[in-house]
Fold:
Amino acid sequence: MSPALRRTAFLFCAATWSLWPAVACADPLVFFLMTAAKQIAAAASNYKPSPEALPQPAPATTYPGTAVEPETLRRVIDDSFVYLSSAQRAEIFESLNAMLLDPKLGPTRATMIEYFLHKALAVRAAQMELARLSDAEKQRLAGEFRQETAGLSDEDRKQLLGLLEQHLLPVPADLNQMLLAQLQESR
Structure:
């Protein structure tokens, strides 16, 4: 018990005991209240909480200032970026998680999460639409890709080739192979 609380309890008890004879004769209700106050003061002065009894704060399960849990972001990353390896998805999560836990970004944390979720879900929707294309539609799309990339500089072509070889573009695997073949043929 803190010294200030102990002092307050002592003063309350001293005042109660000094007024006891006058109050006891006054009214049974006052008598009851004074007895209860005396018992509460005595219990408070003897109470010493054990370290186990003190409630431990639960670890935060959400990002500060938001209702979003890290596991929710991990699931969105795993569901939206299926074209990446699990190590690449883990790297994205770790980077994003570290950024969102940075106290300096507190005021913009919710906006960053909202922006990321919007983009991730857009990538997922685009992948689903591309996966629904027939083989003929994918071939047509690959042909258009070849025409569009014909005018790229050698440096840009190498960069795009590297992205396709590493499967870093958000397209289904079969379409990725078609685009890669078109880019290699147009050299």
The chain has a mean pLDDT of 79. The longest helix spans residues 109-131.
